[in-house]
What we know:
The protein is an alpha/beta fold. 35% of the residues lie in helices and 9% in strands.
Amino acid sequence: MKPDTSPQADLPACAECSLPRRRRACLAEGGTGPAGCPTLHAPELAAEVERAYQDPDLREFARQASIQEAACYANRHQRPYRLQPTKTRILEIAEFARRMGYHRLGLAFCIGLGREAALAARIFRAQGLEVASVVCKAGRASKERVLGLDDRDKVYQGTDESACNPLLQARLLERAGVQLHVLLGLCVGHDSLFIRQATAPVTVLAVKDRVTGHNPLAALYTSETYYQRLMHPAREE
Length: 237
């Protein structure tokens, strides 16, 4: 049976909105939206959240994030304006850290992206920032002893395989006094555990996708052509 991929009527479904941007309530005064549009149907919650931005620390973080967003485009004074992006993700992270007055970053990375982590650390240091870095296998926590995994659930069967250890990564970086965590290639789930454990803010430099060379959007772009099996999981048999 083909899975039901239609949005549920009682859930926000902004990803399904097909209105032109100039007509969307979230972007235009007097705009409209489809059934379930959160801008139109959750005004009380939106007002409550706006009040939450009056917290000085939260407001300053959000303010600097918006300033950084605009700073990634050139020639914004031109009319009519056409978007002209100029800054890479890693440069944007470095600039935002400086805007916030941060001087020490925490790089939590997958062992499979060790070369990329070394390059990232060099770039951040060249940008005038300190870097503390911790690999995912730090601590050598045994998958058998700590997680109770059977041999069939290991990557390298027949070995005492080290588990990824995002909790230790977060704790070590906290102890190092980092002010902003940067995730690089942590596995699905391990990244979630890191974010849950972290006490400092977290941003992402890149995520892992073993098939696409760490470009997960490639699977979306080809889901209606060469990678149709994503839309038809029953055909996986």
